[in-house]
Specification:
Elements: H1 2-9, E1 16-23, E2 26-33, E3 38-43, E4 47-54, E5 56-61, E6 65-69, E7 73-76, E8 81-86, E9 90-97, H2 99-106
Antiparallel strand pairs: 1-2, 2-9, 3-8, 4-7, 4-9, 5-6, 5-8
Length: 107
């Protein structure tokens, strides 16, 4: 799967997204971005973490921009609008934990 993301990002003007794992409220997504390609502004609806496995990305909010390189990770704040732009051809993993949020809503 990661090889497929790496190959597809070389020719794509859009984010390349592949689901790697989806079980018991936990999802892992591989996202590939060619240099300059943006993952459009959105909000994390649940607890999320990103881990860069190749290249560099800029994580942008209204308040700040942070650059992350290979092997760096970041806990994405919930309910904060953000976008991601590839500074260099990049692949990152996105870990989503929806299970805890479902339980919180029931309390």
């Amino acid at each position: 799967m990661m090889t497929e993301v790496a190959q597809n990002l070389k020719v794509s003007d859009r984010p390349v997204v592949k689901k790697i794992f989806d079980e018991n409220g936990t999802k892992i997504m591989a996202i590939g971005l060619r240099r300059g390609v943006e993952l459009a502004e959105h909000v994390a609806p649940c607890k999320a973490k990103l881990l860069v496995v190749q290249g560099e990305i800029d994580f942008n909010t209204e308040m700040e921009s942070k650059r992350f390189a290979r092997y760096e990770s970041y806990d994405i704040p919930m309910n904060v609008k953000h976008s991601v732009v590839a500074w260099d051809d990049a692949i990152f993993l996105l870990f989503l934990n929806e299970k805890n949020e479902r339980y919180r809503d029931k309390e």
